[in-house]
Amino acid sequence: MNTQKVTIADVAKRAGVSKGLVSFALNDRPGVSPETRTRILAVAGDLGWKPSLRARSLSTRRSFALGLVVARNPEVLGSDPFFPSFIAGVESILSDRGQALVLSVVPSEEAEIRSYRQLVDDGRVDGVFLTDLRHDDPRIPLLTELGLPAVTLGRPDGPSPFPAVSIDDTPGIAESVAYLARLGHRRIAHIAGSSTMLHGTRRRDAFEAALCTAGLPLGQTIETDFSVAAGSDATRRLLTREDAPTAIVYANDPMAIAGLGVAHELGIRVPDELSITGFDDIDFSRYVYPPLTTVSATPVVWGRAAATTLLALIETGAADDVNLPAARLIIRGSAAAPAHTRKSAT
Amino acid sequence: MNTQKVTIADVAKRAGVSKGLVSFALNDRPGVSPETRTRILAVAGDLGWKPSLRARSLSTRRSFALGLVVARNPEVLGSDPFFPSFIAGVESILSDRGQALVLSVVPSEEAEIRSYRQLVDDGRVDGVFLTDLRHDDPRIPLLTELGLPAVTLGRPDGPSPFPAVSIDDTPGIAESVAYLARLGHRRIAHIAGSSTMLHGTRRRDAFEAALCTAGLPLGQTIETDFSVAAGSDATRRLLTREDAPTAIVYANDPMAIAGLGVAHELGIRVPDELSITGFDDIDFSRYVYPPLTTVSATPVVWGRAAATTLLALIETGAADDVNLPAARLIIRGSAAAPAHTRKSAT
DNA sequence: CCGGGCGACTGAACCGGTTTAGCCAGCCTA
DNA sequence: TAGGCTGGCTAAACCGGTTCAGTCGCCCGG
């Protein structure tokens, strides 16, 4: 078989034109007469010519690939379905556009920085997605220095030259708290994510603001690293206190599910004696018992939007911020009126 | 700044040699005198020369990247922590070797095939990982035809030209059944994975063989697609039957956790009235209540081994099969003696 | 009838490496 | 001393596209 031997020169010779003209025709650039263009394209089709990505990469200094560097320990990564879904969304855009996704999973922040440097040194990608934004995120100046286009998932707290694709997660938390307050809860606690992460503190702030709006006293808040293990620990600490809360708002679903386990273990019935809400609406949430009242995130949509924006940025040099519909509360079975209210109501 | 301008020609000129010789020195090939070599390398270091991956790709026809195509619907993908962990393992090898991972997540089998074709057409990768092996897996002839090196995760059921990196999952299932039988269970059911997947039927076969070994009658088996939703449904069907089993062996943890939810919902106490075992030992398993008795898989190790093998195959043209230590049963709290046994024991 | 402008097209340089043919000096052997 | 071999090195082709300066023919206005 003449395996993958046909080059632009073959097409040019066969069509009786120069290599350059074939290139022009391919990238529909002006300066090629309509009939010549169709002839060239026809010949290319006949010959089954596929322009070499590698050659094109070399001369255009583009790699036609996007990068995603994920710095998380594998455990947290494993229990968080955000990335698989996000990536699925990204792919759904990339595959049609002839782009590839280069993924890098690194164990530490230093490795993360090395990874970005490597990615640009090698010219592996034309742009990257910045997820899990941190306070004063060091990646923003880094990427600015490296001159690598990027899109941030959410708006950074410092100055950023990059477009942001955001989904407001505060209404979801506010709704959760309001819902619990309406059910009659007065001691509501929050098991927060890491305070180094923007979405960790943002959800915590939203929680506190919502308590305030509801006219409730500031509840206990425990900071975690978003991991299932930390969620479990935090829940245990909360529930074994004198003034244990009657409701807990978790910063993500994995921790909420771990919390459910702890409650079961301690013989505390959910939702009768303890109400809990999660965040993310992961697949599991619907199938634990009781099914988790949570806030629905839409990582697939986020992935799509981020990919579209990043490609636009790369191609045109500029792209607008995008605001996705806010995450909303989904009411299932893990929250109810607190025990004393219930009694008095009966 | 002279950003990334230094090429092999600069190094050659500065060192007073030809481009070719610099190339020889870089790839330590014979034909360069020791002192010239060190001089060239010193100059290269001084100038901060980084050979262009793109140029190298073009002339060597290698891409220095490995591919992973995942065909799963995003939901199943999200609740299964196998891939994140596997990828973390792969990365831990790749990053040191200057290789990148190109990830492709596709929704269907046709898209999967297109994805592989695209990957080789574009010369994006030098080899791929074949996960989630299916019966008579069409990817094996496809990749053979495409001439793309690959490593299979597990041994395929048909002929395969590719090295296999395997972890035997049958002992884990066998141990689970033996353990349940020893506890006194006689009606043990299996919620199996998809029968199109090799590991789906393999675990099912192991289950049946183990029942036989234990001298127990063949139990009920329900086939699923490995998803949480399917696990939930299957469990409900099983538990609402006349002759409901006293123990269920699940083909993976997500389904087992969903099963736990269904049991709770139906007011069936685990492990007192129903014992369950899972497979994978995902992060959640330790934190649900009761903590899941399951079989520990080691996807990170698997990823490492697969990456090492694939790189060896690409570089030397051949690589041996690898057999990783078998997955073993981890006893936690979700299995106990069945109710009647317990009664008579008390 | 001439000069200018424009559209279509060519040839060659270029991206930055690798690879091969071949040259030359020096040494060994007959 | 000639002949052959070999280690060290160079020049140029090559990978397969893109890009740019410039040629050529044609149409148009003056």
UniProtKB/TrEMBL annotation, chains A, B:
<keyword id="KW-0805">Transcription regulation</keyword>
<protein>
    <submittedName>
        <fullName>Transcriptional regulator, LacI family</fullName>
    </submittedName>
</protein>
<dbReference type="GO" id="GO:0000976">
    <property type="term" value="F:transcription cis-regulatory region binding"/>
</dbReference>
<keyword id="KW-0238">DNA-binding</keyword>
<dbReference type="InterPro" id="IPR028082">
    <property type="entry name" value="Peripla_BP_I"/>
</dbReference>
<dbReference type="InterPro" id="IPR000843">
    <property type="entry name" value="HTH_LacI"/>
</dbReference>
<dbReference type="Pfam" id="PF13377">
    <property type="entry name" value="Peripla_BP_3"/>
</dbReference>
<keyword id="KW-0804">Transcription</keyword>
<dbReference type="GO" id="GO:0003700">
    <property type="term" value="F:DNA-binding transcription factor activity"/>
</dbReference>
<dbReference type="Pfam" id="PF00356">
    <property type="entry name" value="LacI"/>
</dbReference>
<dbReference type="InterPro" id="IPR046335">
    <property type="entry name" value="LacI/GalR-like_sensor"/>
</dbReference>
<dbReference type="InterPro" id="IPR010982">
    <property type="entry name" value="Lambda_DNA-bd_dom_sf"/>
</dbReference>
